Amino acid sequence: MPDTGLTARIRENFVLYGALAANLGIGVAKFVAAGITGSSSMLTEGVHSVVDSGNQVLLLYGQTRARRGPDEIHPFGYGRELYFWAFVVAILIFALGAGISIYEGWLHIRDPEPLLDPTVNYIVLAIAFVLEGASWTIAVREFARSKGDSGWWRAIHQSKDPPGFIVLFEDSAALAGLVIAGMGVWLSHRLNDPRIDGVASILIGLVLGLVAILLARESKGLLIGERANPRVIETIRRIVADRPWITHVNHVRTIHTAPDSIFAAISADFVDDLPMGEAEMLIEGLEDELRLAVPSLSSIYIRPEKRENASPPMPPALS
């Protein structure tokens, strides 16, 4: 039986659906444990799971909105709306996840609650670690498959598909938070000092704050507009330069209008005696070859321009 559109979308968003299912179940268990034991770090972890669940919903919504085709108002489509929602996710992690965690930890240090039996906390943390670990493993495998030979950090920095690296960051922060929460609960009882649980909550908030800053940085670059992979640019330049009726490629400028959609603007110096009618047919053939070599090229603009009149090359990025 052939896949339906819904089945294809579920398979495409397997990482997001897996993370959402894990966070919903874990969040309920953490809140129950926090209510029974009064643990600040468990309450913080519950908030963390709720924020992560909301983030996955926003990313799924963003992907749905980004699939809309071009129209009169948005001639290049709505693909970059996904980048907007990725930036919103980073803000939510910082404002809700980190902010509430640090505030709750400070309240617990100022007015510590009496210690209760931590067994429930340990059970919930162990289950949460298994579920989060499974979600993290899925995210790592999917991202490793897409990153190719690039290093992890370089692949994250060059990625044009936010859901993949956002879930990877969130799950990594979640695992770190669970370890911190477990240590906070254990040390609180070991040293008979409930304030340590509040310190653990603040540390979880700091981890979330760091993740939010990193995600905001990456999402901001995509939202503003980032070029295609240098190998893609070099492929375009080589194909254009191989044409005998082009004497020089002045520049190739690209921008991602969606994770799998690239706009390319090419300036090239044509031979002087090329008739306009013939040039139009040659350009059409060149565009067909470019799209065959780089299927993600959604729009191509080729401008005949004398080499001496072309604008200077773009300065290198500062980061």
Give a verbal description of the structure.
The relative contact order is 0.12. Strand 2 (261-270), helix 10 and strand 3 (297-304) form a beta-alpha-beta unit. By secondary structure, this protein is mainly alpha-helical. The chain is built from ten helices and three strands, in the order αααααααααββαβ. The longest helix has 30 residues, at 81-110. The protein has two domains: 5-224, Alpha-lytic protease prodomain-like (Up-down Bundle), CATH 1.20.1510; 230-309, 2-Layer Sandwich (Alpha-Beta Plaits).
Percentage of residues in strands: 5-15%
| Poorly predicted residue ranges | 1-11
Order of strands across the main sheet: 1-2-3
Structural class: mainly alpha
Précis, in short:
The protein has 319 residues and is mostly helical. It has two domains: 5-224, Up-down Bundle (Alpha-lytic protease prodomain-like); 230-309, 2-Layer Sandwich (Alpha-Beta Plaits), CATH 3.30.70.1350.
Offer a few descriptive terms:
single chain, 319 residues, mainly alpha, Alpha-lytic protease prodomain-like, Alpha-Beta Plaits, 2 domains, three-stranded mixed beta sheet, 10 helices, disordered N terminus
Write the layout of secondary structure elements.
Blueprint: H1 5-12, H2 14-37, H3 40-66, H4 81-110, H5 119-147, H6 152-158, H7 162-190, H8 195-224, H9 230-241, E1 246-258, E2 261-270, H10 276-293, E3 297-304
Parallel strand pairs: 2-3
Antiparallel strand pairs: 1-2
Helix pairs in contact: 2-3, 2-5, 3-4, 3-7, 3-8, 4-8, 5-7, 7-8, 9-10
